[in-house]
């Protein structure tokens, strides 16, 4: 296990600044997700941690020992980090056992240690009965477990995972999410998990670093990201949300504040930045679909623009007169074009929109 840190790390490819003075501390034994859309810099951060890339500025360290800076660059094989790729990267001519044991053979460990470590790794990923199988006979999930076991036998200080579930179907993704969480619980290894799938990150990570355009927008626990997004861009990226425009009514202070939306007053939770704003200041309010209540006569007006069946309930897509989109849950379907009214029981106010 190890603590990893990025201190004002920048990376440039040609004229493109892929990372812009990024700082992040990853605690010993933590499972942290680097989450963001394609091109945000999350995979570059992983490659920098692995030693595949060299930073243009800043310091990358492991337990206070410098891995990379402008003058020092420790080779990947000297960092003792396991890496799980999206493509599995298994040797097709080797059996499952030989693939997993390969790092041990390179290190020339004794046969007894190799056998004991291999047996333990196969057990951890539930592949004992597939030790002699060829990778070509395995499912995608099983191949990914082989790659994970290969990391485990190295006894790495950290495991770096680059979108490892992207090639799997929905059911296998859920199964492998649990496999990764079980692996983390048993080994307490520091894990850095790169993904563009916010559901994966929310389900698995101790903390999530949300990235946009080479910068970290917010680092927080999944619950805090969902309930208290730092700005509109984070709110829209994490879960479903309606972003309503309103203005403050009354003075600040306390955890909640009155906000006027289309002439109606709602009590919402407020960020620190909103707490310092004066009466009548413009704000944005994040409202999640589970907090929207539908009515026939009272509340904010909206037209039903879509209705999706989710199995246990329906998801309604509502359009307000100013074209703001609102998602809501209902026990019964609604007709497209039907006019409804809604209120909300919880909201999170932050400053004006971030471009």
Task: Characterise this structure.
The protein is an alpha+beta fold and 355 residues long. Helix content is 25%, strand content 35%. It is built from 9 helices and 20 strands. It has a 6-stranded mixed β-sheet, sandwiched between helices. The longest helix has 18 residues, at 170-187. The protein is globular, with a radius of gyration of 24 Å. It starts with a strand and ends in a 5-residue tail after the last strand. The mean pLDDT is 92.
Roughly how many Å apart are the termini? 39 Å
Averaged pLDDT: 92
Query: Which band does the percent of strand residues land in?
Result: 35-45%
Largest sheet: 6 strands, mixed
Short description:
This protein is of the alpha+beta class and 355 residues long. It has helices at 42-50, 96-106, 111-124, 140-152, 170-187, 198-204, 222-227, 232-237, 272-275; strands at residues 4-13, 16-26, 31-35, 57-62, 65-68, 81-84, 158-162, 190-195, 207-212, 215-220, 242-249, 256-261, 264-270, 282-287, 292-295, 300-309, 314-319, 325-330, 339-344, 348-350.
Name the descriptors.
OB fold (Dihydrolipoamide Acetyltransferase, E2P); six-stranded mixed β-sheet; single chain; Rossmann fold; 355 residues; 9 helices; alpha+beta
In terms of topology, how is this protein built?
Layout: E1 4-13, E2 16-26, E3 31-35, H1 42-50, E4 57-62, E5 65-68, E6 81-84, H2 96-106, H3 111-124, H4 140-152, E7 158-162, H5 170-187, E8 190-195, H6 198-204, E9 207-212, E10 215-220, H7 222-227, H8 232-237, E11 242-249, E12 256-261, E13 264-270, H9 272-275, E14 282-287, E15 292-295, E16 300-309, E17 314-319, E18 325-330, E19 339-344, E20 348-350
Parallel strand pairs: 3-8, 3-9, 6-7, 7-8, 13-20
Antiparallel strand pairs: 1-2, 1-4, 4-5, 9-10, 11-12, 11-14, 12-13, 14-20, 15-19, 16-17, 16-19, 17-18
């Amino acid at each position: 296990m190890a603590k990893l840190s990025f201190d004002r790390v920048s990376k440039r490819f040609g004229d493109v600044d892929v990372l812009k003075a990024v700082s992040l501390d990853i605690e010993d034994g933590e499972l942290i997700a680097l989450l963001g859309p394609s091109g945000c810099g999350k995979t570059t951060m992983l490659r920098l941690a692995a030693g595949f890339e060299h930073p243009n500025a800043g310091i990358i360290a492991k337990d206070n020992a410098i891995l990379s800076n402008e003058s020092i660059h420790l080779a990947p094989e000297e960092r003792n980090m396991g890496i799980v790729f999206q493509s599995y990267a298994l040797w097709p001519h080797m059996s499952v056992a030989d693939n997993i044991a390969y790092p041990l053979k390179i290190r020339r460990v004794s046969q007894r240690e190799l056998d004991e470590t291999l047996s333990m790794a196969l057990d951890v990923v539930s592949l004992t009965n597939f030790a002699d199988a060829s990778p070509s006979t395995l499912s995608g999930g099983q191949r990914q477990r082989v790659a994970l076991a290969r990391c485990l036998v190295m006894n790495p200080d950290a495991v770096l995972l680059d979108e490892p579930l992207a090639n799997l179907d929905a059911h296998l993704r859920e199964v492998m999410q649990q496999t990764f969480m079980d692996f983390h619980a048993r080994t307490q290894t520091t894990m850095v998990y790169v993904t563009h799938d916010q559901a994966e990150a929310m389900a698995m990570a101790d903390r999530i670093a949300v990235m946009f355009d080479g910068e970290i927008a917010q680092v927080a626990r999944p619950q805090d990201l969902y309930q208290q997004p730092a700005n509109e861009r984070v709110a829209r990226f994490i879960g479903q949300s309606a972003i309503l425009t309103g203005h403050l009514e009354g003075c600040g202070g306390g955890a909640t504040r009155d906000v006027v939306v289309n002439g109606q007053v709602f009590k919402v939770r407020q960020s620190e930045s909103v707490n310092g704003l004066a009466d009548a200041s413009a704000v944005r309010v994040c409202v999640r679909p589970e907090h929207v209540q539908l009515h026939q006569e009272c509340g904010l007006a909206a037209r039903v623009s879509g209705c999706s069946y989710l199995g246990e309930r329906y998801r309604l897509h509502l359009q307000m007169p100013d074209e703001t989109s609102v998602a809501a849950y209902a026990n019964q379907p609604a007709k497209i074009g039907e006019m409804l009214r809604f209120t909300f029981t919880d909201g999170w106010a932050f400053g004006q929109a971030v471009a």
